[in-house]
Amino acid sequence: MTAKKQAPPHPSGDERYKAIDRTMKRFKYQKDALLEVLNAAQETFGYLSEELLFYISQQLHVPFARVYGVATFYHMFTFEPLGEHNCIVCAGTACYVKGADYIARYLADAFDIEPGGTTPDGLFSLTMARCLGSCGLAPVVVLDGEVRGKETAEGITARVREVVAASREHLQEEAG
Ligand code: FES
Question: What pTM was estimated for this model as a whole?
Answer without folding.
Answer: 0.67
